[in-house]
Amino acid sequence: MAEPQPKKIIIDTDPGIDDAMAIFLALRSPEITVIGLTTIYGNVYTTLATKNALHLLEVAGRTDISVAEGSHKATKLQVRDFAHGMDGLGNQNFPESKSKPIEQSAAEYIVEQANLYPGEVTVVALGPLTNIALAIELDPTLTKNIGQIVLLGGDFSVDGCVNAAAETNISGDPEAADIVFTSGADVLAVGMNVTRQVIMKDYERDKLAESDGIFAKYLCKILDHYFSYHRHAYNMKGIYLHDPTALLATVNPSLMTYMEGVVKVQTTGITRGVTLFFNNQKRFNEDNEWSNKVKVAVTIDAPAVVKLVMERLM
Ligand SMILES: O=c1[nH]cnc2c1ncn2[C@@H]1O[C@H](CO)[C@@H](O)[C@H]1O
Prior knowledge:
Blueprint: E1 7-13, H1 17-27, E2 32-39, H2 46-59, E3 66-68, H3 81-84, H4 106-116, E4 121-125, H5 130-138, H6 142-145, E5 148-152, H7 168-172, H8 174-181, E6 187-190, H9 192-195, E7 199-201, H10 202-210, H11 214-234, E8 238-240, H12 242-251, E9 256-265, E10 275-278, E11 294-300, H13 302-313
Parallel strand pairs: 1-2, 1-4, 2-3, 4-5, 5-6, 6-11
Antiparallel strand pairs: 7-8, 9-10, 9-11
Helix pairs in contact: 1-11, 1-12, 4-5, 5-8, 10-11
The site of inosine has 13 residues, from helix 7 and helix 12.
């Protein structure tokens, strides 16, 4: 039997230290082919996200991969550079790459690629969902043409209750997130309820430091900042592997289990950005805003995820 073709992936990213890990992981995963990166604000402003995306591809020797710049609509409140350093990459002030983004916007690029390969492209969204919502607005048939949208965001408990804390990516653009969740596209949400179980410990970082691999060497420089941030913010000796976990959902879906249900996003008041997960099996008389089901990750084999991250980055 012929080997299955690698899945075509576009990573929508705001690099970001854990974004860098996810991008490198993707480039080391034979199950997927990264066809492009699109950039978004979140961990840094979009302009810097684009610079960092180009830089990371240069480090990887993969400047053949397209980078399309995304929406610039962020305000100061939507940018979280404290977790990742002012430069988004652990305050290392790496030299700027000579490569340039393509002319198309992120939304235009996503629409184009989905039309070119109907049903074959997976978008892995690691930041606020602005570009994805813009792409759906630009071409509503995207919801049919896109293979899957795997997004890192939200916080979902299994019984359909609300978690009190709004997650960064969803609160970065709640309106966009609500558009994506209710669009009818095949959406898989990987939220904090699973990613907070996936932790790289100090001793694992030390192991990474022993590797001669280019990705391991590079990451050890930028990870110090992320470890310090986690010690300061969460009083923990380790880091959450949010973005790598979401990326690995496309590489090996059996690392997680999923529930189907409807997700809506609160867009007003102090609960702005909270994800509501309605996983009742209720059959409505007619379709309404609670009818478009998505998949939500509810359990995860955390040790297997960390092991895969380590193996592929060494
Ligand atoms: O403590 C934090 N505050 C804000 N953003 C964070 C923090 N830790 C990680 N991220 C970033 O936000 C997403 C997860 O919500 C991840 O993409 C990560 O890069």
